[in-house]
Design brief:
The chain has 11 helices and 13 strands. By secondary structure, it is an alpha/beta fold.
Length: 364
């Protein structure tokens, strides 16, 4: 496998991205530019209405330059009056014009200022609110899941994890594309726009406090660099990475990945199994689709199962996880189950079922 240097990849990413930032899901879908445009249209409508009010009574106004007030003068007067500039070159002289200024022009001036000042205040308030949300999100984020790459693999992986009970608030998506992060926000996930091979981008995702990291970029060399960076920032997190080519899997493990999935190889094996036995292929497809039909899960041993063999449990046990070893259900070294063991079982899918996360215990 030929890996380009870290600097080369960073330069490639820099061509598409200059800065990186955190984005949180929003409940308000209206864009700020649209809000400002609406305010601007309202302000222009007030200006036009004021100009026509003045023009309708133009005989009651006096222009110092030529005494008469035409439509252009009316718009000029409306503009300087609503903006509170008020040069005094055009003034109301009749009683009707002065009454109009008191009861019509002045309220329109106040409305005009409210629209403009309100827009500024709303922008400042929105920034303050967003900063407050971001700080609160950072302080509350613990033991979360970081997903690097929100393509087909990343989406499927996080949906599978969420099907076991993981809350969307506990997921952070990292991707260099702002459109991809917008899509993640739309699904309720927080996102960080940036190149995940850079440590400062992963730090914005609070990767040093994450419990598990899913590495699913488009390129194998990117997956290697992301895994190296993530493992350097978090020594205890569980890192699962996906690669396209089987020959790159050992390199991912050496980089710090706890588990490596070869997407092309897994798909090929499933295709071969389906050719040999379509029914077996359907069962395997069912098993890897979390939340429907049959599910394969990992759970702790309960006290009632201690001292029994894997065959004597109520569930269909596939393997026993003991320490750092994964033993088959028929492995003689398993003997009887211990309280510190974990079981990999096949169960009937239950919506909203929770899977107890693995925590290191003495002897692991």
């Amino acid at each position: 496998m030929k890996l380009p240097g870290h600097d080369a990849i960073a330069r490639q990413a820099g061509e598409h991205l200059v800065t990186h930032r955190v984005t949180l899901p929003r409940k308000v879908v209206e864009r700020p530019l649209r809000q400002v445009a609406k305010r601007l249209v309202m302000a222009l409508a007030v200006l036009v209405a004021t100009a026509f009010v003045v023009y309708a009574d133009h005989d009651g106004y006096h222009d110092n330059s030529d005494s008469s007030v035409d439509l252009l003068d009316a718009f000029y007067y409306a503009t300087v009056t609503l903006s509170t500039t008020g040069y005094g070159d055009i003034t109301p002289v009749s009683d009707s014009a002065r009454l109009t200024n008191i009861f019509v022009i002045t309220p329109l001036r106040v409305l005009f200022l409210i629209i403009l000042v309100g827009t500024t205040l709303e922008v400042l308030t929105e920034r303050t609110r967003e900063e407050w949300r971001l700080n609160r999100w950072r302080s509350a984020l613990r033991d979360h899941t970081v997903v690097v790459g929100f393509g087909t693999k990343g989406r499927s992986a996080i949906r599978t994890v969420c099907a076991t009970g993981l809350r969307k608030e506990q997921v952070v998506v990292v991707d260099p594309s702002s459109k991809v992060i917008d899509a993640a926000n739309a699904e309720g996930f927080a996102g960080v726009i940036g190149d995940a091979t850079r440590s400062e981008v992963l730090e914005r995702a609070e990767v040093h406090r994450a419990r598990q990291i899913i590495v699913a970029p488009q390129r194998d060399d990117t997956a290697v660099l992301v895994t190296l960076t993530a493992r350097q920032l978090n020594r205890g997190a569980k890192i699962v990475a996906a690669v396209r080519e089987e020959e790159n899997a050992p390199l991912l493990r050496q980089s710090g990945a706890d588990a490596v999935i070869t997407s092309s190889g897994a798909a090929g094996r499933l295709l071969g199994l389906s050719v040999l036995s379509p029914a077996a292929g359907m069962v395997m497809e069912d098993l890897i689709q979390q939340g429907s039909g049959l599910d394969i899960i990992e759970r702790p041993v309960v006290r009632a199962e201690v001292g029994r063999t894997p065959r004597e449990t109520d569930d269909l046990v596939v393997s026993v996880v003991r320490g750092h070893r994964v033993l088959g259900y028929d492995d003689p070294s398993v003997g009887t189950l211990r309280l510190t063991d974990r079981l990999i079982t096949i169960v009937r899918a239950t919506p909203g079922a929770q899977v107890t996360p693995h925590r290191p215990v003495d002897g692991d």
